[in-house]
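pasting for ref. prot 1 ->
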Amino acid sequence: MQVTRVVLNSRPGNNGAPVAENFRLEEATLSADLADGDVLVRTLCLSVDPYMRCRMNEDTGVDYVTPWQLSECVDGGGVGVVESSRCGLCVEGDVVTSFNWPWQTRAVIKGSVLQKVDPKLVDGHLSYFLGAVGITGLTALLGVREKGHVTKGANQTMVVSGAAGACGSIAGQIGRLDGCVRVVGICGSDEKCRALVDDLGFSAAINYRQEDVPARLTECCPNGIDVYFDNVGGSISDAVITQMNSGSHVILCGQISQYNKDVPYPPPLSEETKETLRRKNITRERFTVLNYMNQAEAALCELSQRVQSGQINVLETVVNGIENMGDAFCSMMTGGNIGKQIIKISE
């Protein structure tokens, strides 16, 4: 059968912003003859995420994700439906997901790497398995729980950068539900600020492109900052850390402002910021969700319940068509999305 796939056409260079032309659309032929253990899947939805920028380099800079190879099909989070199977783990009609789903309209995948999911857990919103009730939600929930030290009744203030993105939008809601009395989001447009406050229950939001971030932080966080969920790094994070309280906690989730630069991960801090961390005894710990997968089942169950009950609201930006994968990826990297960026491949 004929399938359409996306391959890596070129690398942006270690200091370059990605462009849609780094990706190339190809037609390919897929054999319908399955080997033992194989599953033929039709792709429903694909995800694009900031960490993928590292996969565009020859060296990702981290040991837990591999680089994409030139002229080979790229992969990432995906959800689809089984069309035929020679694997005892799944049968025709099952909805399945994987962290390494090929960017193809259909694919043959080893059944052992697929995770069967129940559409009822997301009220039929299957894309949520790539976001709020998937690896993104896990990152937000377990990041806050493992590194944030949020305590009910402790009158804590949380700040989230990249707050209107897939992970930040969930992390702020978890912080509020877990007991933070004030949750402030930093994002890049007035529309995103409105979404954070009106739709997600943030106490306040700061548009870093238009506003004086240090001044607004002082205004929005009169008692200082106790927990910082950091998705962006750079000057925004320096401004937040300056106003953090003694004994507070930075959850180092991502550094999207630095991903196009040729620097190690996590990127180095300025001497001034290092001194602030030392002087105030602020913990700043890198969080990698893959180290906590023993907690995934219970955490996904909680996320599902909170989404279904309306305690967690989910924001998505949806684009249609595999031909738009490159554009969607580049848009996400420059903040064009509100919530999770999803590409719908088929019904």
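and prot 2 ->
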Amino acid sequence: MFAPPAAESQGPSAPPAGMFDSMPGYEGTVAGGGGGFLPPPMPAFPVPQPEPGPEQPHWNIPSITEDTAREAFALFASSKCCYSSAPAKDGVITKMDAFNTYRYRLETFTELRSTEWSHEPYRGQPVDAFAQPPPGPWDILAKTPTFYVDDQQIMKVPYTSSMKPCHDCVGMGRKPCKDCAGAGNKVCWVCNGSGYRHGDDRCNHCSGRGRENCSHCQGQGAKQCATCQGKQQLLVYIKLTVKWTNNSDSYVVEQSSGLHAENLSDVSGKELFRDSQYLVYPVMGFPDTTVVNAAQRLVNEHQGKYSRTSRILQQRQTIELIPVTKVTYSWKGKLNNYFVYGNEFQVNADNYPATCCCTVM
């Protein structure tokens, strides 16, 4: 025989709407659901206007040497168990073509605030509701965030905390056990309540009683209320969530080397330009016009999108060069090629000319 499945435990009931007081400035606040997002107030002082970033009169585009290309190819071949080292060792480089691929990245660091009614078991915490009007959600001091690092802080809104009887257990601290309907015991699942298993053999599981103590409540018929944890009272308050987010978007200039674009997401490049201020000005003077156009578009999108729901604290824009070099080499009278890309000098050689057919058993 197998024991019957235990009854599923049900979560606490939702608190009634009348449980929450009407707080000045927070009349629309609801319970649960992640809270309502609150747009920041209009600044009391003029917002500083973005300034053009530092001029970059010389955009230095580095290229790799033959020795670097050869060493990267050798490391690549040695990392493959089925690749012969001969092409990397004996191949003669005949041509190297550099492809200058740029990545523009814009980061907008924002602060978002939301409120919702919340509660916790009352353990003697201060009760301050209506002692004075609560401060507005954007007037409450939060910690100083680290720029461009996602973070979150949760706090109680001052002067909103009150003590209420627990709605889930009606202030009793305990709830009837759902598994045994509050009886503290239930019909023995082995003998189905008869007290015997076969003929006159007494049921060993319930000692012939036909009933067994409920394992969920240890025979007490009630369990501690999970909502108030047996305290009978709840501290009810408005919870403020402050969320800092680094919103990032990138644009990579399309390159015609033949290397798949997805390879470039795994590597870093050489930083050519960096500008960080409250609001950045779209980059100007860069030799690739597609980067200039992308910067204009992304800056306008970010400043329009995030200023409506959040407070922009800082913006940063960077341009980096992701070097891509197509290397053509001769081995055994035939021309082949491979790519060396990124600061890490990663190699891609889809048509390596000396592989063996090895299998893993």
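The chain is about 10% helix and 30% strand.
The helical segments are 66-78, 86-90, 289-309.
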